[in-house]
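Worked problem 6 (solution included).
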Amino acid sequence: MTTDPARTILDDAWGHIPQTRETTAGLGSFTRRRIERALDIVIGFGCLALGLQAFFAALTSREEAPGWHDLLVVVTFAPLAVMVLVCFVGRGVKLFAGLFAFVYLAALIVWPFATQGVTSDPSVEPWIWYLVNVGTLAAILAFSLRMQLVWTVLLPVVFGVVRLMQGDFAQEYWIPVLSDVAFALILGGILFTLAWLFRSVAVNVDETRLRAVESYALAAAADAVEKERVEVAALMHDSVLAALIAAERAHTDRQRALAAAMAREALTRLANAEQDPEEGSDEPTDAAAIADGIEKAALELGVAITTERSIVGDHPSVPGRIARALSLAAMQAITNAIEHADGDGLAVSVNAAPDPVRVRIEVRDRGGGFDLEEVPDDRLGIRGSILARVAAVGGTASITSGERGTTVRIEWREGGP
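Solution. The predicted structure is:
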């Protein structure tokens, strides 16, 4: 079976990209941004067509009283022209669309005063009617979903009321006005529904894409970590054997120090062999963050615990690598308490103090207890994941177990024991 070299290179490069919230933020709005841009352009063309129709109708309009015609035309069509322009440019769309939506509503409200005393034909729509659905489109661009719905209904209704007021609610106005209002409501409802539908589809596509990318990134990271674990396991065999041989042959202080250093290196590799892809950097971490991490990890195991905290001083902190080792050891103790004591009486406490920095974690349960000496050698949950892991970072761990329960104490002190 042959593999496409280009595809292999792309997969490898993608696996090295850090998948953080910052790097994946754009993925969550990829389709939505393009749908919004498409709506801007389409609505721009629609508003341009309807606006020209209304403008040419306004040029020959004789329904407004002297002095009102020019004022209404300028006030209404100037923001409309700017809105159409920014729809094509793609900048300031919400601002100018919202401005036109309010300006047009104001123009409708003053329409009865502008046409007072002027006779009009009830069968001929005034120029301002052609902009009713333009106002709806402006609301779709500028407002939230609820306000879009309000504007879709409000503008036709206001037009109907002011048109009837213009005709003094005469009987010959009712049927033409109701027909115009019904038409505007139907068309506005269609425009509102289409915009909502396109935006909803875009959001669903973006969310699906983001989940897929996150799943792929996690799978790639987990695969990389698993490969690293295999490599570490292969190295561990030689490291442990070399440390044991050096310890057996050590007769001088220098030889003993070398053997201790080799053993410490082997324990460090063992502790780091079970790190996960989200370990993070070695930046200092305070004791409160360690307690928060323990609570979060326990919740993922299905157990909600509240860590007892006794933190003295101004946020004493420890290196991230050490904090990670202490947290993983505590989580192993919690896992043991859940598996072997059903979580009976499970409690966790974190104590910390500065100068020098000291951190102590206790995990307690009220299970039946056990005898540490009788634990088989091949069971590394305690020896490897707790004792060896804490020792590898210069800390100490002790286990007290009896009929009344088990207590695991994990301590680390700056500068050593």
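Discussion: The radius of gyration is 36 Å.
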